[in-house]
Every structure is written in structure tokens, then in C-alpha cells.
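To: structure subgroup
Subject: Chain for Friday's discussion

All,

I'm putting the inputs and outputs inline so they're searchable in the archive.
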Amino acid sequence: MRCALIAITTLLVPSPGLGQLAGPNDRGVAFNHVHLRVADLDLHKALWVGLLDGVLIEKAGYTAVQIPGALIFFTEQEPSAPSVGTTVDHVGFKVRDLEAALGWWRDQGHTVVDEWSGGEGLPQAYVTMPNGTRVELTGDSALPESSEMHHVHHYSSRPQELLDWYVEVFGGVPRTRGTIQTTADVPGTNLSFAESESVSPTKGTAIDHIGFEVEDIDAFAGTLKERGVEFEVEPFYVESLDIWVAFFFDPAGTRVEISQGLNTF
């Protein structure tokens, strides 16, 4: 079922049957990707493909693993810190066969940090990638594919205010997820929020940033500026990928990318 550590199929374009990304909401927004910093690119490509049965994509010098709902991008650079202790504590994925996924993980010589029965009534586990990214896995035998994007878990001293910001900016739809009351859905993922008094910004760490696809980046950037958002990087064109991207920080310090055209990567 799972890819061997050394046997990975590389595609120049996404497989239409596996890695479908979500369409936009009424704000023209959908979740798009998680971007990791890793010291060993080949190792992380193999682990993410193997753990999630993802599709490896290499295009114009960029590398990503695609699963339903998201792309997982990699920059080969030593991260400055693990994800735990930052404003994005972990990212979560559903897998159709959790037991098989954890068995494969252990076969690669890695440990499972914790296993429990989650608040949604499904089995869950934590694993930690070699770059320090905490990954939450939720077993769901009803999944149509082997895996899918599930959630991004933000930590903040003011989780409700941060939730409200994501609802206002990205059109998130608030809901209770299991026992977690402070969450909101955007197409492609759930955004969850927990309280922590001491967290650091994500830039340069294991999870450098998260990304959202927008239909009109200039209009969206203009709306953000009207709300007082200051851009780290103004919208610019990436010719090799034929896309537009921009970067800014959320109120807690999470680095956020918006893109136009990256959903065709």
C-alpha cells in the first residue's frame, strides 16, 4: 500500500485523481499549502509521500507533496526551531488507515509520540517529522482517498480574537470541532485555535508559513491593507510558475502567503 522509502514517483503536474485542491468560498479564498523548512529534502520527500500516500511534484525548482486539500512545500534549509512553541503548533491530516500509517512510520525507525481517542470519536496520534514539525493524524475509514488535509492548529494568547480575524479576513465559517470550540472552516481545511501565553512567530521555523489561494490577489491585498495589514512582501509575479504571491503576518505572528494561480501547481 505505502511507497517504499526509496521508491517515489515524481510528477511534473499533479495527478487529477489524487491531489484535488478545494475551490474558493464566497470571499474567493481556499486553503492551499503548508510550507516547511527541512535540512534533508530527500528524507522529507520520502517520509511525507510514504506517510500520507501523497504525490511528489517537482517543478521549476520547487518541491511539494500533494494530497487532497493541500500542498506541502519544502525549502531545504535548517529550521530555527520546531513547530511546538510557535503560533502553528501542528498540522493535522486524516488518514483512511491509521494503523497502517503508524506501522509504516515505525518501520522507518521513527517513534509515535502519542495515541488517543480524539474528541471527534476517531483514533488519533502525534508524530514528529525530523525537521521538528508536529503532525496530528486522525483515522477515518470513510475517507475516499488515503489521506486528506484536516486542520492547522494555531496557538495564541488571544485565540478567540485570532479566530475572529481569520473569519473576517478569509471568510472562515465558525464551528465546534469535537471538543474544540474555537475553530473555523475554510475550503480545504479547518483552522483551530488554542490558548498559549508564550509563542513565537513561524518565519524560519519548521512550519515557516501557511498559504491561501485567492481569486484576485490585487483586490484581496487592497482589502487587507484597508484592514491595517502591513505586507512583508507585496504581491509579485513568479514567472517560472506563472503565479502571483505575497506575504504578511497574522496578529499572532504566523507567516501567511496568499497566491493567485498556485492551485494549478
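Points worth raising on Friday:
The helical segments are 41-52, 98-107, 159-170, 217-226.
Residues 1-19 have pLDDT under 50 and may be disordered.

D.
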